[in-house]
Amino acid sequence: MDKALPTVADAVADIPDGATVMIGGFGGSGAPIELIHALIDRFRATGSPAAITIINNNAGNGYCGIAAMIKAGMVRKMICSFPRSSNAEAFNEKYLAGEIELDLIPQGTLAERIRAAGAGIPAFYTPTSFGTELAEGKPTEEFDGKMYVRERWLKADFALIKGQDGDRTGNLTYRMAGRNFNPLMAMAAAKTIAQVSVLGVPGSIDPQAVITPGIFVDAIVEVAEPQQEEVLVRTGVVY
Amino acid sequence: MAEFNIMQDKLSNAQIAWRAAQDIEDGSYVNLGIGFPEMIAKFQPEGRDMTYHTENGVLGFGQAPKEGEEDWDLINAGKKPITLKPGAAFFHHADSFAMVRGGHLDLAVLGAYQVAQNGDLANWRVGTKGVPAVGGAMDLVHGAKRVAVVTDHVTKEGSPKLVERCTFPLTGVGCVTQIYTSLAVIDIKGGRFILREKVPGLSMDVLQAVTGATLHIEGDVADLIVPEELA
To answer: Are the CB atoms for A96 and A59 separated by under 8 Å?
Structure first.
């Protein structure tokens, strides 16, 4: 089974208007910058995909990656835990002008909701947020003398993720703390698209080293020398 | 001896961090919140081994790298570059928060806007203006064996941060077990503040006057002694 695609443009070609898209990464680490920029290129050339809902830990930094998607006007809603960064102007402007929706979720709950979706678990109970405004309207229940909040799974139409080594069947490894949300999102989207620094033939990755098995990945594309969002932000790059 | 002046004679943040560090046992797994709590790592007592956890999927990280040696895939929850110690491990976000909520951490230390006598914590938002951001704060208050707060005893305006009931939006309910402030060390037990230590020269009356709920005493109240060079 060969899931490899020749370019990042091919990889994001069928994401439609209104899609819910998970994007891996925590801040800039593990963020699939080239896939995001390919999506922006398509939007600028064709006006599509528009009205995207993004699921990410953050809401972009500076003027590249997710911040550039927001600035370009192709994002309808952010689902995230921490829409604050060294330069969150892109999100803040739209949010304070009422031009973008925000669904704020505690970080561990966000991760577990995504994991639950990938694991076929529609809901679970967590102590996180009990008694706070973020739990308002949610069912609660007592277990062994402690109160918990019921949270639902969180699914997406697409996931854009970043790996280190990949093979043509979709097996993936990750680089250091670039792992973060990537393996969870790979499981939770109807279609998962991975960019990897090294794309090899089946067998090129030691099976014991595989973090995301290829069953969770639908398309894979090589970006040999990926850009780091943090470097782009620090050098003032505007995409 | 001159009269104790709350604003001048209080402990510095470094002194509060040093005091909190003295209570961390050898072999502990610890999460230090972004900002002020991170300073505690600098004062890890000699001969004690601690393993630091960060929400974005690293156990066993060390100090910041030298300038120019940053690797932007190797960062902490504050998005700052870090280095690894021998024995470090990477994991994904669901495992990371399983370590938090699942009771595997020995200690989490957080900052605070307000702490209530029943252990309620407010540390993520002061009002309804601006862009809200919660991050991992609401998760970190659940599950660690000890949840401690480091904070100034009063706000910049001089009003108490230790209160009967939080008025700012809550981060968690009944979660804090210990407070290290610029004037005192306080345990939370049975819905009450129990005073353990106070800075020398500070009277009970003055300390109580800048505390928003009753300070209870069980046994001795020790002097809160910290290194002067950290002032």
So the answer is: no
